[in-house]
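Need residues for this backbone.
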């Protein structure tokens, strides 16, 4: 063991796995998939809904201290292959609820894994649901329109409530319906205060951000003080007309080398509030005993049952079930995909030039890598017109593996949704089938990104192409709409992606279209020429 930058560890490379194994050794009910960095119950109760979460390491006891968890490296999201394995490990007929904090990497990788699971197992597509938690009041509503509010310690309350409901026998839909400052990576908060004021001055400021409301009636809350031992300033809640019905204090979600604390308020539903669970339901879920290492609430936990440690097997590739669905013109289907790939490769220098000004310069090469990967799949006969579902899934996998990053995840989620959408076809896919599938795929993509046109992103031409198809099969006209939308990004200020950090006036002056949008335009024009 060595002391590295004031941390005790064996080696940095094995730190995450060592931590998971240590947790399992202390809690015999747990098991570890070391290859995929997953901690889970060794013998789960298949009659109950499963809860799975995860994210970057370095926030212990989150996330493995509460529910089944897929761990990334320190402050980095796990990849979608790891998450898919996690879903498989907890899979059961009652369903699985995925809960993630609202960070782009977590949302895209966990979301992509969910969509791949649904595409590969259409008979169980509705058995996995996805919830994103964003509880950071340091991100204002206007700032959060695209990226949303960050997920902080409030996520732990969501774990607890969902877990208690699952343990009590609630259905997946019932749990899903109920669950609807400073970041945990040392990002900037809503403002800086220097020198640091005493708690008697700081707590009122924090509570003001959390509770500012014009509601004249008293509100009931659950108060969680994360990583702070003393709660002597709780009377600040009374000043705001609040009554804290439950108070938690301790280390629930931490961060390496970050001295500080966060305050989380869970606003309980008011009596008679429409379409909301009762206050008593939420409190009962929080009060329920939980035999997990991370939850600090009741000292009367049952003794753990001894279960033999059995490492999980490696993830196995799966193919979608059902009879193959063919393209109406199998040769034309493959030819169109080849044209689109070749057009992207040819457009790489132009897209790269755009992205050097509007982004970080890698968009053209990223799209080229994806196109080359798809052409390789065509040469291997993994993409054919005789099985369009498997072919579209293959394209989704190329996007994930060859492109990577945010754009690769977005493309992969879209194509995974497209594969799911076209599975409802019978025998041969018609233009109407493709139109419905594209509409489904776009709606599905919007689950994982807040970007909406006009946003100066690839969503602009994609939406312009798909939206008319909800009531028409006029693909040529839809392509023209997409091309026009890509052109219009020249005059738009960026709201998301790397371009959001580039000086807006410069982009408008030089009339630089969004590189990602231009890539979508290039694909569609070649595909339907």
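Answer:
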């Amino acid at each position: 063991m060595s002391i590295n930058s004031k941390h005790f560890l064996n080696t940095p490379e094995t730190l995450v796995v060592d931590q998971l194994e240590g947790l399992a050794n202390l809690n015999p009910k747990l098991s570890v998939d070391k290859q995929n960095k997953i901690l889970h119950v060794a013998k789960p109760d298949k009659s109950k809904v499963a809860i799975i979460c995860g994210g970057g390491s370095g926030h212990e006891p989150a996330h493995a201290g509460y529910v089944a968890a897929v761990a990334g490296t320190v402050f980095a999201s796990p990849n979608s292959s790891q998450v898919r394995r996690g879903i498989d490990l907890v899979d059961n007929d009652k369903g699985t609820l995925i809960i993630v904090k609202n960070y782009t990497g977590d949302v895209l990788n966990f979301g992509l894994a969910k969509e791949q699971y649904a595409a590969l197992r259409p008979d169980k597509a509705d058995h996995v649901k996805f919830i994103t938690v964003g509880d950071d009041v340091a991100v204002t509503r206007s700032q959060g329109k695209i990226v949303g509010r960050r997920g902080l310690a409030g996520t732990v309350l969501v774990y607890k409530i969902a877990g208690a409901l699952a343990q009590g026998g609630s259905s997946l839909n019932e749990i899903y319906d109920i669950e609807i400052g400073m970041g945990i990576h040392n990002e900037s908060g809503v403002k800086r205060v220097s020198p640091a004021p005493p708690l008697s001055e700081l707590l009122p400021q924090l509570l003001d951000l959390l509770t500012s409301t014009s509601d004249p009636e008293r509100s009931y809350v659950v108060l969680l003080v994360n990583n702070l031992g003393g709660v002597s300033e709780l009377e600040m809640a009374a000043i705001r007309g609040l009554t804290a019905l439950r108070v938690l204090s301790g280390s629930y979600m931490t961060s390496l080398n970050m001295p500080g604390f966060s305050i989380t308020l869970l606003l309980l539903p008011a009596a008679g509030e429409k379409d909301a669970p009762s206050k008593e339901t939420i409190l009962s879920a929080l009060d329920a005993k939980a035999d997990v290492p991370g939850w600090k609430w009741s000292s009367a936990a049952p003794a753990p049952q001894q279960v033999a440690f059995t490492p999980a097997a490696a993830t196995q590739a799966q193919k979608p079930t059902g009879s193959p669905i063919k393209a109406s013109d199998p040769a034309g289907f493959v030819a169109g995909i080849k044209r689109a790939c070749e057009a992207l490769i040819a457009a790489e220098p132009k897209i790269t030039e755009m992205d050097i000004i509007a982004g970080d310069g890698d968009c053209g090469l990223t799209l080229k890598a994806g196109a080359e990967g798809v052409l390789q799949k065509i040469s291997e006969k993994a993409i054919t017109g005789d099985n369009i579902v498997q072919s579209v899934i293959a394209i989704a996998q190329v996007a994930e593996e060859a492109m990577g990053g945010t754009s690769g995840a977005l493309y992969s989620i879209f194509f995974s949704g497209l594969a799911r959408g076209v599975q409802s076809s019978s025998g041969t896919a018609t233009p109407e089938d493709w139109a419905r599938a594209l509409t489904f795929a776009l709606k599905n993509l919007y689950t994982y990104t807040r970007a909406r046109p006009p946003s100066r992103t690839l969503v602009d031409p994609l939406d312009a192409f798909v939206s008319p198809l909800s009531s028409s099969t006029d693909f040529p006209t839809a392509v023209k709409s997409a091309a026009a939308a890509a052109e219009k990004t020249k005059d738009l200020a960026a709201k998301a992606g790397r371009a959001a950090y580039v000086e807006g006036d410069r982009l408008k002056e030089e009339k630089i279209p969004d590189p990602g949008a231009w890539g979508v335009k290039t694909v569609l024009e070649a595909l339907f020429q």
